[in-house]
Amino acid sequence: MPRIPQQIIREVIMEKWAEEIGPEAARAKAISALQAGAVPPWQQTEIRLTSYRVRKRLREELPEPEKEGGRLYALGFQGIRGVVKVGSTGAPEQQFDKYETQARNLGYALVDGWVSAPVGTRSEAYRLESNVLTNLHLVLNGQVDGGRIFEWFHGHDFERVRQLVEDPTALFHLLLERALVR
After folding, report:
1. Segments of 16-145 assigned E as strands
2. How many angstroms separate the CA atoms of 77 and 104, rounded?
3. Which residue from 88, 90, 109, 123 is spatially nearest to 31, judged by alpha carbons?
4. Residue 108's closest CA among 139, 84, 134, 73?
5. Would the pTM count as exceeding 0.70?
């Protein structure tokens, strides 16, 4: 009898859970469990399903997957508090695996995600990322702590951060408006 690949089995299980629970209900229960202090390994079906569906959606919605180059991204994680990871990458799948593993080790699960179409070469994307991160810190936190640019934004709404990262020009204009008001 031929062996069924583990990935196919996982997909079937996740789709069954999605039908039984419903993706939105699962996400709400996952966030609630994480805010209450759920710890890995995730025993809650809802947490595992939510993270799986975010990664699946990112793979399916990856703009221009055949094109190489750097991309911006925002990943939303939930633990007792929410945290958003912003960065750039030339290899989204590997990058997201790395950060999802790191976050899980700290008690966070992936609950949201966004990745851009290529924004230029890898080095151009890195330069754009540096500008976006600096501007995000100034807009969201009012400062750049100790002159260092961190890629993790604690306690900020994923959707707001995503919108700002998705439109670096609007982010810059928002920063200018805030500077003029002071």
Report:
1. 71-78, 82-89, 109-115
2. 9
3. 109
4. 84
5. yes
Cα separation of 135 and 141, whole Å?
A: 10
- Residue 169: CB atoms within 10 Å: 7
Output helix, strand, coil percentages for the chain, rounded to the nearest 5: 60, 15, 25
Cα separation, 24 vs 32, whole angstroms: 12
DSSP secondary structure letter of residue 5:
P
pLDDT digits (tens), the chain, 182 positions: 677 788 899 999 999 999 999 999 999 999 999 999 998 988 889 999 999 999 999 999 888 888 888 999 999 999 999 999 999 999 998 999 999 999 999 999 999 999 999 999 999 999 999 999 999 999 998 877 766 678 999 999 999 999 999 999 999 999 898 888 76
For residues 77 and 103, the answer to whether their CB atoms sit within 8 Å is: yes
* Residue 123, amino acid: S
